[in-house]
Write a structure and sequence with these properties.
The complex is a heterodimer of chains A (438) and B (262). Chain A is of the alpha+beta class. Helices cover 35% and strands 28% of the residues of chain A. Chain A has helices at 29-40, 53-61, 70-78, 137-149, 196-200, 257-265, 268-283, 327-347, 355-384, 387-395, 397-416; strands spanning 20-25, 45-48, 65-69, 89-91, 93-98, 106-109, 132-136, 154-157, 162-167, 172-176, 181-189, 205-221, 228-234, 237-244, 248-256, 286-302, 306-307, 310-312, 318-319. In chain A, strands 1, 2, 8, 9, 10, 11, 17 and 18 form an 8-stranded mixed sheet that branches. In chain B, helix 7 (158-167) packs across helix 9. Classes of the chains: A alpha+beta (438), B alpha/beta (262).
Chain lengths: 438, 262
Amino acid sequence: MGYPRTMPTPHDPRSPGPVHDVVILGGGMVGLTLALALDQAGLSVGLVESGRLEGESAATGGGRASMVAFAVRRMWEALGVGGLEGQAQPVRRIQVTEGRLSSGARSAPVAPASMMFTDADLGSDEAGAPLGWMIENRVIRDALVRSVRAKPGIAVFEEATARALMRDGTAAGVQLADGREVAGALLVGAEGRRSMVAETFGLRAVGWDYGQDALAVTLVHETPHDAVAHQLFLPSGPIAVLPMTGNRSNIVWTHRRAAARALAGMDDADLGREIAERVGGLLGRFHFEGTRATWPLALAVADPPVGPRIALVGDSWHSVHPLAGQGLNLGLKDVAALAEVLADAVAVGLDPGAEATLDRYVRWRRFDVTSQALGMDLILRAFAAGGTRLGLLRQAGLAVIDAAAPARRLLARTAGAATGDLPRLLRGERLDTPRAAA
Amino acid sequence: MSAHEGAVEASGVPGGRAPSIAPTELAKFEAMAAEWWDPHGKFRPLHRFNPTRLRFIRDTAIAHFGRDPAARRPLEGLRLIDIGCGGGLVSEPMARLGARVTAIDAGERNVKTAMAHARASGLSIDYRVGAVEDILAAQGEAFDIVLTLEVVEHVADPHVFLLDCARLLAPGGLMVVASINRTRKAFALAIVAAERILRWLPPGTHEYDRLVTPEEAARPLRESGLSVSPPIGVGYNPIADRWSISADADVNYMLTATRSAT
């Protein structure tokens, strides 16, 4: 690859140094939020996105929505992101059910205190606060893009295809197809699964393919959802029914790959019948809204998620099963931790791309990421297991959720203490105000 | 650079005094010089510890000189000397914060490592091989900030060394001394635990009898006419695996001293 002419080189005394503090590859929800957080902390940011920032939302927003945790909303507020009011459906309860609702299935409301799906670290202490909000991804993206556009400190390179990535002792960056180069002290991979940063620099992922695809659709339905989310574990895979504003729900149905593709290819009438057979009792009559989204499910966790001058966030680091629409929260916790680590480093004159700096990010996030990914996996296996030998495990599935969650949280708290518990942004603190005395 | 090398290789320095650095102490650090910037190498504990002391120095300097805490380069233009700079783990951040940094170390390999790293980082730092008395021999150099961090416990005569350091401090200047206290607790934690049990540091890095108490460090500074603040502690929480500023100066401590402007 070699050094392009304009990249700073270590031995050139006239080297202008990296142009940006941080270059972010990928303008999705995670990359956009990271750009806003770093900008608030006074770091200069280059944001590289292959599409138009706005155009992306229509193309990929489709049928997908996310469960946004209390602390994540608080972070967006601290970052000045507006426009989510009125488009966020509070989720008051999550009901976990094994088997079909119609056939005397075992069903249990999961108490907020022992909630595997809603990360307790990210919840609210206030009595009566919702467990989270369901918001359509395109709504989130639009709000984030509006904020990013208003920040002169964020240089946006859009419709910009990354041709190659480069790294030397002082900088890392992206060479664009049009010949431009965007370099910084740190290059962050926020492209989602199949990260170019991870692949180029050999941050190998461990994990496995579930052999399943997820299908997401939005329904407008007759029976009110009463702000309750449902997670149904069926023999073929889980279905999440997630309440949205209006009388709408987002369905995320994961199924064996061939079956999922068959579902995705059905016309509305056939797909409607398949869904009604499983969750119709909850929703009454319904029709579809918007487009369908499908994606393959795999567990993949890159280890390590950093190297000299490079770091991964969100799905680039870890793609996990989207049980109950929770995947985004994990990625935004990465963002909050990484932004604080970089802000702290720069404040005391440390190099934001140095391994010693990135080490703190990894120590802060690794345990949480790994345990969440494996926790999701454990639950899936418990419920997906067929046959009599594994039947017992399935029977114990709900108990597993309840038992695993407090244990995980206890460990997470211990491990998280390594660098200071919840990142400031997730506590609702801005990064441009002096930190409270330690 | 050859003049500096000569100063190190010679058995003495101009003026006929014994060199401030203890030769056996110097050898320990020279042997590890290449590893200064490896966050997973022998200096890993120092990398962990570094942000805490950097923040203390930064905040203290900003308060003392009335600088803007929100500025990216709050120490812009201040003349700073880092005495016993090692691989430059403090010199480089200080340069990024805007200080005009001179950094000295008696270990030639340390300084070479530091120079190469600063060049690669695009930082301009005046690195010199030598001891504090070499700087004094050069006429008229004075500094707004004098740092000597984790050094007094390795010099031949801490009292004389600190008298020399204080002479470099300009009127209105700020001096920071960091070291390990000579207490039973320090022996248990900094030597037995950190070196022999946890192996954070190579065994023998610190010798108990060489440790200097904050009172002993303050004495030559007061004799030099400086106002010395009470020591603050830098504590380690093994459960949280985290360093922080604390009131307990029994193990790691930092001492600040100032010279009046007039």
